[in-house]
Amino acid sequence: MKEFFTHLAQESDRQAAGTSPASDPAEVVAHVGELLAALEDGTVRAATRSADGTWQAHAWVKQGILAAFRHSETVELDWPGGAVDKSLVPARQMVAEDGVRVVPGGTSVRRGAHLAPGVVVMPPSYLNVGAFVHAGSMVDSHVLVGSCAQVGRGVHLSAAVQLGGVLEPVGARPVVVEDDAFVGAQCGLYEGAVVRERAVLAPGVVLTGRTTIYDLVHEREIRGEVPAGAVVVPGSRPAGGDFAGARRLSLYAPVIVKYRDSSTDASTVLEDALR
């Protein structure tokens, strides 16, 4: 599959330049179906963690997902209230054998999204194509797990959490939440932000891949990545300039106030941090 979608992307560039004929649509659709099935069963992922801890996006997977949209027709789908979407990436039909509990009430899991056994999804939530949610994780109400977002084992995504999707550019790292992290209500993670294992985000923390995080424990600044075990709360810092100073304006600044130890659970450490 990797070679096919890499070649297809190169061929699309040549087509745009008028130097290559179009691919066989039936062949593309067949490979798209194979890719989506592999994403659903977890044998293929949009991004994986290297031995050194860095997360590597797999461009060919994103190229295959984009091909699914390009080669789809817009069709009416059998869905409560009616729906119109791309023919190759409709909602998945979850079954008991998947080992996932999807509580009724408006949740939709799109084709190409992986939910491991033991995952619980509360309504209404949406999990987009290429998303990966590992075993034992909780997806609470009104949560978005965007395209290609990677969620580890035993993660808790609290109510109204938003994990932004990252399809293009194809080499861009998706949003990542590693094992046993706790993401508080109404947090937003976008543009390749990474939350390392056992980290805790207090409600309302917003991060992108370029957000500066202020570590009060180690007296340092970190860009776009929450360290393992860190407890992050929303904070502020003074805005620069005379105009801002005269009006006492401040800017949003996420702050690490402590680190979890092996004996503290997420709810206990978060309660202590917010007191």
UniProtKB/TrEMBL annotation:
Report the SUPFAM superfamilies cross-referenced here.
Trimeric LpxA-like enzymes
Look up the EC number in the record and give it: 2.3.1.117
Q: Which residues form the Tetrahydrodipicolinate-N-succinyltransferase chain A domain?
A: 19-70
Q: Which UniProt keywords apply?
A: Acyltransferase, Transferase
Question: Under the GO molecular function aspect, what terms does this record hold?
Answer: 2,3,4,5-tetrahydropyridine-2,6-dicarboxylate N-succinyltransferase activity
EC class of the enzyme, as a word: transferase
Top-level taxon in the UniProt lineage: Bacteria
The text of the family note is: Belongs to the transferase hexapeptide repeat family.
| Protein name, UniProt field | 2,3,4,5-tetrahydropyridine-2,6-dicarboxylate N-succinyltransferase
